[in-house]
């Protein structure tokens, strides 16, 4: 919890500072909060970060779109329960066909076998940070304002 407050305090300090000055990249990179399974990083460093009002409006718009997307996904999943059992053919005004994709996927088992044979592990690199939005609780909001 202390690490989160430190991150919030630093982010607020950077956001409140004169827009022409940017926090040193080393400071921003050093602010990493670790949870059980997530590694929270400060995000992009930009010359002109959005205002609090712009961020709140964008989050509200994002959440409304996410809810609409999820509702559409639930409808599609329900329809696929029927369509996945449907054979190629004509159904009313609709034509159903199954087409083999030209996309190829890597055969992970074969890759693992080759690397095991030469005594090496498969090289990996971390993926890009993902955006995660959570509703702030009253207590956390109060703590952030007091910090």
Describe the structure.
The protein is flat. It has 147 residues and is mainly alpha-helical. The chain has five helices and four strands; from the N terminus they run ααββαββαα.
- The number of helical elements comes to 5
Main pleated-sheet profile = 2 strands, antiparallel
Low-confidence stretches: 14-23
Q: What's the order of the H and E elements?
A: HHEEHEEHH
Beta-strand fraction estimate: 5-15%
Rg over alpha carbons = 24 Å
Shape: flat
The helix content is 40-55%
Q: Give the strand line-up of the largest sheet.
A: 1-2
Span from first to last CA? 12 Å
Mean pLDDT: 80
Structural class: mainly alpha
By DSSP, the count of extended strands is 4
Describe, in short, the structure shown.
It is built from 5 helices and 4 strands; from the N terminus they run ααββαββαα.
Write the layout of secondary structure elements.
Layout lengths: L1 H15 L8 H6 L2 E2 L4 E2 L11 H32 L5 E3 L2 E3 L11 H10 L20 H9 L1
Antiparallel strand pairs: 1-2, 3-4
Defining key terms:
two-stranded antiparallel sheet; flat; two-stranded antiparallel ribbon; mainly alpha; 147 residues; 5 helices
